[in-house]
Amino acid sequence: MRIGVxxxxxxxxxxxxxFGFLVLLDRNADxxxxxxxxxxxxxxxxxxxxxxxxxxxxxxxxxxxxxxxDNVKAFFENKEVPLTRTDKGFVxxxxxxLNSPPREADLRATAENDLVFEKKILVVEKDYGxxxxxxxxxxxxxxxxxxxxxxxxxxxxxKKLTDAMRQSEAVAYFTExxxxxxxxxxxxxxxxxxxxxxxxxxxxxxxxLDAKVGDPIFATNxxxxxxxxxxxxxxxxxxxxxxxxxxxxxxxxxxxxxxxxEIVERGQQIGEAGSTGLYSFxxxxxxxxxxxxxxxxxxxxxxxxxKVL
Length: 309
Ligand SMILES: [Zn+2]
Prior knowledge:
Elements: H1 2-34, E1 48-50, E2 54-56, E3 60-65, E4 73-76, E5 79-81, E6 84-85, E7 90-95, E8 103-111, E9 115-124, E10 130-132, H2 137-141, H3 146-164, E11 187-189, E12 194-197, E13 200-203, E14 207-210, E15 216-218, E16 223-231, E17 235-243, E18 246-256, E19 263-264, E20 269-273, E21 284-291, E22 294-296, H4 298-308
Parallel strand pairs: 2-9, 10-12
Antiparallel strand pairs: 1-3, 3-7, 4-5, 4-8, 6-7, 8-9, 11-14, 12-13, 14-21, 15-20, 16-17, 16-19, 17-18, 18-20, 18-21, 21-22
Residues 189, 204, 206, 208, 286 line the site of zinc ion.
């Protein structure tokens, strides 16, 4: 009698389990049948390599669309970004200017076979700090003030540099990674610092790299020389167009060994370090990177570019 009850309970439990399992199967079938959409473009994130998902003001955002062969286009906040083809893929660059507002931005790339790659990029605020703009006693004795220095730079030399950076080649001159322009990377003057003196202020839109007079200075990558001349405040100066709106600038050189219009190779010596021009008080290389009108942190630029090249 007791055994009969236990058997009946077991049979009942098995039936319940089986029934429950059948209901489960049926529900899965329902979910499956609901998910039969019309053909949509495939969204694949793995085809998009980005330098980082967060970029500070003054930083560089670089990306590569990889694993595709043709018909590749990229858009940053719906604006098309020119791409260059390398061994790894299709590479695009975006310089984030110092006054670019913090926000979440969309990057979207499209390729053959209706492929769509999407990524959210965060532009974040960055404070590069301030410092005092001081002149050495020799400059003060020669009758120079921070005011005359800044007005000379803004009114004369910067105009010549801007003229040399009006038209960048639409196609990149480079396909390989960027190299450092000095023998060693020793930062003796940070990018972005606002140098102030009384009512005068000038932002340091490049990096100062330690160098001795006569040390070789190298082109950071392949490009075309768009300026090679002596400027009053910056001394012997060179500007190289790398294409896609990217320029590198080298100032206070002792000597220059390339001329305007020349194509220079990555790592080619373009001159020697020095301390020329009114705005240099000891030997170093002032090295700047521009993307269109935006001055970028050179260290962050090289780091970002080399993640995708
Ligand atoms: Zn400098």
